């Protein structure tokens, strides 16, 4: 019989830990598989099993929290996108396209603050750190950015309504 590797010896413990921190067994199995793959690919993994054990637990934990962060960012992005569309007043496709086109017309610094706060869902203080400006600056920029975006959207809708009336 072939001799088991250190990672194979640790598999039951790795699975138990993954199940403890995940919502489902399937998710835990995927997590262990990803961790083992990462462990096998890593040239810097510890050799003695006593050091490998906590190292693999840390890999599982880091992979798990990375996945949770990805999910949160996606959820916040879609919620913010929906909120931005609803704040504009309508949920139809034409209005969404109009908002996206208006967003592209804004200057980069205006798009940046809108993206960080309204799309990515950052708090003002977090956006201020990203942009390296005071909180109050973010608050005034977001206010001006929202106003500019709505002016572009409202102006385009007014023009669209005038064209529709004339035809």
Automatic annotation (TrEMBL):
Superkingdom as given in the UniProt entry: Bacteria
Segments forming domain RNA polymerase sigma factor 70 region 4 type: 98-149
GO molecular function: DNA binding; sigma factor activity
UniProt keyword list: Plasmid, Sigma factor, Transcription, Transcription regulation
One of the protein's GO biological processes: DNA-templated transcription initiation
InterPro entries noted in UniProt: RNA_pol_sigma-70-like, RNA_pol_sigma-70_dom, RNA_pol_sigma70_r2, RNA_pol_sigma70_r4_t2, RNA_pol_sigma_r2, RNA_pol_sigma_r3/r4-like, WH-like_DNA-bd_sf
Ranges of residues in domain RNA polymerase sigma-70 region: 9-72
Transmembrane segments: none
PANTHER family: RNA POLYMERASE ECF-TYPE SIGMA FACTO (PTHR43133), RNA POLYMERASE SIGMA FACTOR RFAY-RELATED (PTHR43133:SF25)
Family, similarity comment: Belongs to the sigma-70 factor family. ECF subfamily.
Protein name stated in the entry: ECF RNA polymerase sigma factor EcfG
Provenance organism: Sulfitobacter pontiacus
Gene name tied to this protein: ecfG_3
